[in-house]
Amino acid sequence: MAAQAGLSAPAPGRRGVLPSFPPVALSAEAVPFTPMSGDSWQPDSSSDAEKQFSRCAAKLRALRADSGQLREELNLLFDQLLSENYNKTFDPSINIQPEDVCSLLKHVSCLVPLSQEHLVIKLCQLSHRLLNQLKVIMDEQTLDVLVNYTASALKVCSSWTHSDVLLALSTAVYGNGPHCHQHLDDLLGDDGVLLQYSSLSQPNMELRRVALTCMANICLRIPGQPPLDDQYRSVCFRVFLKTLQSPKPPNTDELFYCLVIQAALKGLQCCLSGGKWKFGGGEELGSVLAVLKRLMFQGAPGVSVEWPAVLYPAPLPQYEGPAAPKPAEPPKSSEPPKDAAGPGKSSGNKKRKSKGKGKKTKSEESRGDDGEEEDRDTVPAFPRAGGAREGGRGEGEALTKPSASFLYPSWKRNSSDSEFSDPEGNAQSKLRLNHARVRQGALHCLLAVVKAVERRTLYGYWSSFIPDSPIGGLPPLTLLTIVLKDPSPKVRLCALQVLCAMLDGSRQFLAVAEDTASPRTSYTPFSFTLATAIRELHRALSLALLAETSPQTLTQVIKCLAYLVANAPYHRLRPGLLTLLWKQIRPYVRHRDVNVRVSVLTLYGALVTTQAPLPEVQLLLRQPEDSSGGSSSTPQDSALSWRQRDGMSSPPRTPSQRSSRTHSPRVPRTPAEGDGAPMWLLQLCVSLVTQPREDQSDSEGAGGSTALEPPPVRLEALQVLSHLVRGYFSLSQAYLCEIGQVSARCLGETDPSLQLHGAKLLEEFGTGIIQQYRAENNVPESSRVPINQVVQFWSEVLSGPLNGALQNEQHPTLQASACDTLSSILPQAFAQLPDKTQLMCITVLLGLTYIENYLVKTAAVRALGIYVLFPCLREDVMFVADTANTVLAALDDRSTNVRAKAAWSLGNLTDTLIVNMESVGVDFQEEFSDMLLLKMLQAATRAAADKDRVKSNAVRALGNLLHFLRESQMTRSAFQRPLEDAVRALVKTVQSEATMKVRWNACYALGNAFRNPALPLDSAPWSHDAFAALCHVVTSCKNFKVRIKSAAALAVPAHRNCYGDAKRFSCVWHSLATALENSEDTNDFLEYRYSASLRHTLSQALLHLLSFSQSQDMPALGASLDSEEGSGIRQYLIKYLRAEEGAGGGGGEETEGEKDAGGNSCHPQQRIGGLQQTVIRLKGLKAEGEEERSKEVVVLFLEDLLKTCEEA
């Protein structure tokens, strides 16, 4: 090797710098050796490869094209450079600069003429080696030189050089496709050189493979760089697809063909990665999916079927057929069926491995890492998924029945040692390896397709990759077939990754699945088909869980189950799926591999999160530990109960007991039976977080008898605890002390991640307590956590390490989470905390609002916005003022997040002002600073012009402030202009194109302002604009909730003079009448559900106007009620008075509308009584002429209404 040659023959002059050491006799009395000082002699730290490169590069740079011995010198120097290994994994000390490599390659490209083909080959090999092994990122000039040189060589040099030239070109263009724009036409144009070499007519498989690799490297997108132009990407896509669709040419070696297919798959993956699907419609997508499905089974033993050229999406609803048969139970034994290898059994199947304990040596576990076969010790029977209905139910793959040899797990079929000779066995091994790589590449491509194609489009193809038929009939070839049957753990892992990607985000699609009702006999509903697919996924993944021996693949199986659990609608499925899964995964919490243990906890987190609280999961959580019915060890027997702790482990069992418990699970106990039993899952998580691990089986945990679980396990256990508390608080509340101790333990540790999760667990528990005490949740007092326990809990938390987390400026995320924890204290408990503890909480939060980090500031401002609503704090004028000043400062922050949360807190603060005004009275208003109130009004007005996230709460605050102002303040000159600006800001927001939430908040705010009797609605110049904006919105806005809020606002003023003159009153009336007439006109079904609530609010508003109308209003009212408009109004008013339209129209919106309009009772008798009072009042009005005639029309209209309602 070159390195050895360099040692034996150092460069000239090297010997002169080596120090000479005097000879020393070896004896006991000899002076010990001491190294020389650093300034005496320093060995050269450069590696041999680096020195060789520097020496040869210097010589090459010194050469000129007209040198006499140019060819010989180049040949020698190239050989010396090619003899070195530049891989940093081989020698980490190599430090060759990228600019030196680029400079050398540019210079040498000018020295080697294309006529010297041997030198051209060596230059290409050198270019490939340096760029590939040193991972050089080239500048554009070097890239241009190399691409131009190699492209020219392909045109000029003989064909025997083209393989090396293409290899150099592919290395140069790796990830640089967009930067080669001036050469792309020559490479990928109509007569492009790469298209010629990659065409189906190219007989040389090696040239075809390298050309496809080169195209793949051109399509490869490096993160942060622009993608390749769509024109060239489409050209490459078509080439890759045609290559994959074409059959193997005759007389072509299977191994070479596999290499070509691998290159095409890699290229297709590069085309699909990092963007949306841009390669045509359903036909192209179906073609890609069809070819990928075929290649997913490339080289699979016994698969000999006719594959369709195109997959079509399954029609929805699906098909008519007989009732689905009842699913059979999973096999009870792991023994394979006796006839599983009957017809397809090979001569080498006579010799089988005996079943062992499941333990494998390290070398055995690593088998199959590159796709080789891997033996398994526990193999389930092959899942017989029903039917062969794949892809549009018309695929040809069911035409030929797969042989039984493939139905039997291929990694259990051993060949005898004498079946192949050594060369034949080596060739077979290479072929199996490359077939596995083809399957792996196809699955990688399928994963890219799943990520690139819109989910809604992809759902139509699910049945081609996930079985949706009950057990029975021929087993379809799907992803689950690969998961259960492929001999390569890497291929199984890829199939599981595709399955995870398909399941991720599929909740909306799977939501229609249902099998709780009896199946129909005439046809199979789509909901039942989806439910069957979910059950098939459960069954197959459960079998994979039992059989899998590769820890990496086992981890992915459990992750896939977690995705399934997170997206499937178990409340619409027959119970039992989660029970079986719960029991099956339980032993894996003791698995030796830390990643498996983490994934198991992730799955438990999904189980306690999905549709929580789920009755089936509640039953499982209430079961005592010894009733789970699960085995005490995994099927792989990976770790033997190394967590032997009090309350954590079951008594030792004999193998027969273990077997009987595994195959005969107990029936889950009812809640009543298990009420007194501890929650096993909660105790497990507490133990994983706090207790030391007794068996040091993890390499990262070895080194002491008190080593805790690895951080990933502890963090995931804390996540599960948080999910438990959030979803099943009624069960978790009994563990108040344990959860407090776990959180305190985590907050006291040095790992910020553990501290963060400890704080979040406290926040979840505090939020659960608050939910219990909310009146609308109707939780009986006997079921709540007693208030004294809550006070004690928070007293201990606030006197513990939470203070350290609040002051930990090195970790802002932890500080922010600690602020959220403070905000989750129950208000009633906060009032009973010691005064110094209350003061500490307030002082810390006020101080943290001045921290520069936006996360901390946002959380602190939010917490203050919650505290200001506490009954024990809201009447404290000093605290309210301090909070107001803090919030005002945050409203000017440059971070949108801070400003949004500050606006929300300002809205809460102004809610407090209104509550105090109604409960305390004028005393609080007078005590509150006028100047601070003015600042709040101006700040909220400015915030109303901010982004929608800020604006939605800023307008809420404006409505409260305008409601809170006193008449003495409005008459002051300092308030008059800000008051007008505030109202105009609300009007502008109502009329704007902002989000609907912002607009309905603005309408509500105007109605809130109208409640202030001191507001000069009759004389203020802005009042006309306010009423005009509401009248416009109530008739024209597409969003019915905005219309409801605007109608409620128009019905708020309590006096006739608030509506101004007769013209404005008439405008308001006609707007409400028009809105009532058009209350059913909408093209959006989602809006139609609010139409009844809208009619309710509009009818109430019209009667509100009639209740204080005056004689000058009668002409307009009479004309309206006497016309066709009046007949429509009469129809809706009758329904309102009879209360015929109630909760069916819009839920809580009606109640809110009534409250906004003045709190009139919903009872029909009271509504009719109010109308009677209106009639009596109108009869007593003095009117003359036309006003008198119009008044009679109005009175007759109302009397007719009353008569109709009384008759009913």
From TrEMBL:
Residues 437-617 form the DUF4042 domain. Residues 348-360 have a biased composition (Basic residues). Gene3D superfamilies: Leucine-rich Repeat Variant. It comes from Stegastes partitus. This is HEAT repeat-containing protein 6. Residues 321-404, 623-676, 1142-1166 are annotated as: Disordered. Pfam families: DUF4042. Residues 324-334 have a biased composition (Pro residues). Residues 649-659 have a biased composition (Low complexity). SUPFAM superfamilies: ARM repeat. The gene is heatr6.
